[in-house]
Structures are given as C-alpha cells and as structure tokens.
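Hi R.,

Here's the chain you asked about this morning:
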Amino acid sequence: MTVTSNVEKIENNEATLAIDISADYASQEYNKACRRLGQRMNIPGFRRGKAPRAVIEKNVGAERIKQEALDKILPPVFADCITENQLDVVASPRIQQMDFDTEKGIKVSASIELRPAVKLKPYDKLKVSYQAFKAPADAMDKELDAIQRRYTTLEPVIDRAAKADDMVIMDFTGKVDGKLIEGGTAKNYQLDLENNHFIPGFAEQLVGHKLAETFTIKVTFPTDYHDKEIAGKDAEFDITINEIKTRVQPALDDNLAQQAGDFKTLDELKEAIQKGLDNMTEQDNLFRKQKAVVDVLLEHADLELSEAMVSRELNYMVSEVKERLQQQGLKWEHFIAAQGEENVIGGMRGDAENRVKTSLIFGQIAKDKDLAVTPQEFSDQVGELAKMARVDEKTVLRQLANNAGATQSMNDQLLSQKVMDYLLTRAEFDVTGTTEVLSSEEGQQEHVHDENCNHDHDHGDAKADKPAKKPAKKGKASAKKHDAADDMPAEDKAAAEAVTGEPVKDADEKA
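And the predicted structure, written out as tokens:
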C-alpha cells in the first residue's frame, strides 16, 4: 500500500489533510468489500458468498461497495497520518471531497479540528474564594419530623366535622349551567384537604362538614382552565362525605427509630442522621471549592474556541435536556414553544463554551504536570464498576474492550479527577460567607468534562448529596408517601382531572 499525505494548517485551529492512496490498494480493498457484501446477501441463483463481482455490483451498486471499502480503509489511514504529522486533534476528520477510482486510486480531502493553544496564568497556588454551605440549625428537627410524617397513619373520625388538615372520602357531582361536567363525577374519592390541586375554593368548603352530610358548594373554574367550554364559569358540586380521616403522627421515641431502620434507640437514629448531614455538608463544600477553582481558571485562561467545538457541546446539552423532558413525560417542542428557542439555546451556549474551555484547560494542566491514569488506577475503577453492577471484573473488561468510547470516557473521568485533586491540594481558599442553600438547589454548574469524552460519565465531580435520606430498614421496601391516586379507579382519576385540570399520576410516575 502506498499512502501519501500533505497537511496544511489553516486558521481557527483547523487543518486540511490531503491523502492519496495507490490504485493497487484501492482495487484490493474494493474487491474485499465486494466479497464481504456478498457474504451478507441472498442473491437468487447463487449460494451466499459465491456470486461474482459483476452480479454483486449490479445488486448493490459500485458506490455502496466503495463506501464499504472506505469504512475499512480510512480509519487507520487517518490515524497514521495524524500520528506522522504530530497533529493534536479534538474530533474525527470531516471528509470534504472524495474521489475513488479502482484504476487511479483514492484521493481524499478532509478538514481536522486541532486543539487550541491554551495559555494559563500560574495555577499552582490559586487564590480562591467561595461561599461555604452550612446545614441549617433546624436540619435535624426537619429530618426527624419527616420520619414522623413518613410513618403517620390515618385514623377514622366520627365525632367531629372535617378540619383543614384532614383527609375526606366523598362522592361528588359537578354541574355548569345545570349540565353535568364531563368527567366531573366520582364515588368514594379521597381528597387531602391540606395538599391538593383541586380548583380554588373546593377543598376549603368541605371544612366544617360532618360525616354522611350532603351539601352543595359553589366554585369558579379558572379562566385558563384547559376545557375552554367551562373556563371562567361558575359551577356547583353536590357533595356527600362518606369518611373523615385524621393524621396520627407517631411519637418520637425508640419505637419509631426501630421502624425507620436498623436502630435500637432514638439516639442511634439521630447519630445516623447527623452523619448524613455532615456528609452532605462536606460533599457540597467540596463541590463549591471545585466550582470556584474552575471559575478562577476560566477567568484567567487565554484560548480561542472553534465554532464546531462549541456546537458539538451545545448539541449534546440539548440532547441532555430532551432526555430529561422525555423522562418527565414532556416534549422538547412544547418546552421550546413555552420558553422560546432563542432564550433556551442562547442561555445554554455560554455553559457550552465554559464546558469546552474547562476540558481544554484540564487537558493542558495534565500535559504540563505529566498527569496520567496509571494501570492500577484504571484497574481499581474497573473493580468499583464491577461492584456497582454486581458482576465480575472480567465482564466489565469485556464490555470496555468492545466499546472504545466507554473506555476513553472512564480514562477521562479518572484523569479529570486527578487534575482537580492536584489543583485542590495547592489552592488557597478563602470563605467569604455561609449559605444554607445547597449548591444543587442554586442551579450551579455540575460538570467538569474532557473534550474527548462521550458524556457517559460525570468525570468524578463531587456532587452534593441530597438532604439526608431516612434510613431504610433492611429487608423492607422503601416506604413511599401513600397517595390517593395509588388506589384510584380510572373513572375517579378522570373526575379528579376534570376538577383539577391536571393529569393524575400514580406514585411511580410521581417518584
């Protein structure tokens, strides 16, 4: 095989690569591609793989065969040319022009993005300021209160009228202008008078009424109600209360601690909660330090980004948002229509630029300080992945061997964390104040990523834990707050949707 290449650097960190591949090699690979396609085809009159070249060309076309050949030829040719010319690239070459002739050879013209030069001010002793997180003074009380509410029971009430924090089970029938509201009727519907999404004034008018009482309430549908025929109109609902239930909260004692998890006493439960709060504080402040370090680096770095690099990252960020919306049962198109495409994309662009800049800065620091992932570090991470997935390490290694992107992603994650550790241990931090709001609730950036990553990972960022969870007892299913919708028949869900104007979701959908 004879391959010649010529590299010409151009502006904006891009280069053109001209490659000539000899006719003998082009013809040889064309014939191989033809045979491979023949092996995968069923051609009448021939056993698989036995059809002559002319027949295969007639069935699939010469262009399809050429593409099959190029898929095998170009990757190693590009890799060799990049290595020989010592190009520091950040993305795969983009073919601009192609001429494939089995008698004359192959001529390829491609453009390649080059890694921009990164100029950094001294970073071995960064002076970094940040606002520290401090758990609120009542954090323990709130956690204990949440556990009490988790194990609250509903007890029937027979000797008094409904209160604002009760649960009632009722029948209701709604009318507008004397006509029944479509879907506005339900039997034995359970409504939380304190927390619900019924139209304004509905739940409030149930307060003060007694068991088995039948009465009528008047409400007005909101002007923006989804059913335009009744939006803004007055309605009457005939109500019959079948049951009234009150919440009975358990005492804060050793018995509750034993219900909540593997604890013998309330003190043991409190100790576990405190550990969770301490860990949350530590992780949140670590993240705040990381972000502050990145902000300082971004402020003092001098580098020029290509539009292609930013666009790639922006496209990935858009796909992230689309995926999250899909998980919530929402559509990107509706989101864009509500928020405005210019506002959404424009707001994300700055984040995309910072992500790319951060990755380039980290790459430069790793190069400057000769930081690299050792075989032992990689092996340890494989072991951690195996434990998380509950498989053996050989299984993980096989999966990585078949997915070069995942392997690179894991290596990038480990290297990114090494760079961050290097910076953290040498930075001088100044706490400018405290806050009781977690960084995750402030909407701070949470991704320090490498330009070459395929985004299957978080690059080892120390993300702040959510507020301390209630300890789960071994062998028990996690207790979810029981919702009326969990046991609601389909017709009652329809009635609830008619009164609220919102879809009623099951507990699993709400989680």
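The domain at 263-442 is CATH 1.10.3120.10 (Trigger factor, domain 2).

Let me know if you need anything else.
M.
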